[in-house]
Design goal:
The protein has 14 helices and 17 strands. The chain is an alpha/beta fold.
Length: 420
């Protein structure tokens, strides 16, 4: 390794990357040296002990272009000019003299992901993690299990996205973005900001001037390294945890169960109509499930009543029976339902939230997370973004709300245990 000139911020980053923290994120503006210094740290780790490391990004083409063909050759040339290494250009990994391997992979290539995640690693690097789903990150983390003397590390970098993104929740708020609870070991999560102004020794001055001329939203992200405050694209923009989350009490009367049919996950919300408001008492969130398991779970919790399901359940089948038939077989009532337009359903929930006629019990953690994080993309609710598990349980709420109090003229007052 050569003694190459490091910026002050790079020295601080190296100290942080080598700290006791297990998960470390470098975030900030464009061309601030984040990826360079992480690749440098991974090569140093690989040189110390025979080990395996992987760098992951949303697509293979993007990581091939950005790291394999650009950042990695630069780091090797500048910081390790005498290091002998071999590039496997078929499977895309670097081999060091001590037998260490550094792999790259795009999470869009299922076959390649399966091949690489069949291995165990000492370091996992999520490059541009703003583009990655939280569920994909969790799956990849199961491979951080190589047995050797190296302390296992997970590195992340990104240009900071919206504050709704899981990276903000995990590293800044120190909350699990799914459970909305404090992460168990916050001391293991560290982060620092690196911006272009900290890397002026290595970038053209005109580049900073170009960033300064960008619109404020882009300037804050790519020049100043700020997470976005705006609610552009937020689906449930009327939801306010301080206003709409409160303890609820189940009263005598009919239970209404909004349900979204899905396998991963299958969801339901348990509601009552009380004093002209919809009270959500509980939620059921089942992964890798089906209608039989959902019905069993509801019965076990003594939630028997009228199910307001996704109307596609009339046609979907499990073991030869439709989802509706299965629910009826368990004793649930199903009124005539149809799915409104997605925008109408979301607008209806926002209307009820604005009128403070939707109260959600704090135990409904998945639902609360959905209402805070679900966003629009290309005029549809985003089910392929940072957290692919989102939208389902808020859909279940939407079906219930539409049936109980849809947009339009009221037929009769809402009373406890009765639909309008």
């Amino acid at each position: 390794m050569s003694i190459f000139s490091k910026t002050i911020i790079q020295v601080k980053a190296i100290i942080l990357l080598a700290s006791k923290a297990k998960h470390i994120m470098l975030y900030g503006g464009s061309r601030s040296g984040k990826t360079f210094i992480i690749v440098f740290a991974i090569i140093v780790r690989a040189c110390k002990v025979k080990s395996r490391h992987v760098m992951l990004r949303g697509t293979f083409n993007s990581i091939k272009t950005s790291i394999w063909l650009d950042t990695m050759p630069k780091v090797l040339s500048i910081a390790f000019p005498k290091l002998i290494y071999h590039l496997n250009k078929t499977d895309y990994y670097l081999i060091l003299p001590n037998g260490s391997e550094i792999w790259i992979c795009g999470l869009d290539d299922d076959k390649r992901v399966e091949k690489i995640l069949g291995k165990e690693f000492s370091t996992i690097f999520f490059n541009e993690c703003s583009q990655l789903a939280y569920s994909s990150v969790q799956i990849a983390l199961t491979r951080l299990a190589e047995k050797n003397s190296l302390k296992k590390k997970v590195y992340y970098d990104e240009n900071p996205p919206s504050k709704k993104h899981w990276s903000y929740w995990v590293f800044i708020k120190k909350l699990c973005p799914i459970e909305i609870e404090p992460i168990e070991d916050p001391e293991n999560y560290a982060s620092m900001v690196m911006n272009p102004k900290d890397n002026m020794e290595n970038i053209d001055e005109d580049y900073l001037k170009m960033l300064a001329k960008m619109p404020k939203k882009e300037r804050d992200r790519f020049m100043n390294g700020l997470f976005g405050d705006d609610d552009d694209g937020a689906a449930y923009y009327s939801f306010d945890r301080e206003v709409h989350v409160a303890e609820t009490k189940r009263l005598p009367g009919t239970l209404f169960i909004g349900m979204d049919f899905n396998v991963m996950p299958m969801t339901a919300v348990v509601c009552q109509v009380i004093n002209n408001a919809i009270h959500v008492h509980d939620e059921v969130y089942l992964e890798n499930s089906d209608t039989y398991k959902m019905s069993d779970s509801l019965i076990k919790s003594r939630y028997v009543g009228t199910v307001i399901p996704d109307s596609t359940g009339k046609n979907r089948s499990t073991s030869g029976k439709s989802d509706f038939d299965i629910l009826k077989g368990y004793g649930f009532k199903i009124p005539h339902v149809f799915n409104p337009a997605q925008t109408d359903r979301v607008n209806n929930v926002n209307r009820l939230l604005t009128e403070n006629r939707l109260i959600i019990n704090p135990k409904c953690k998945k639902l609360i997370a959905d209402l805070e994080q679900v966003s629009w993309k290309d005029n549809k609710l985003d089910q392929k973004g940072a957290n692919k598990m989102l939208t389902h349980i808020s859909d279940a709420l939407g079906y219930a709300c539409w049936h109980l109090d849809k947009i339009g003229p009221k037929v009769k007052p809402i009373e406890i245990g009765r639909m309008r």
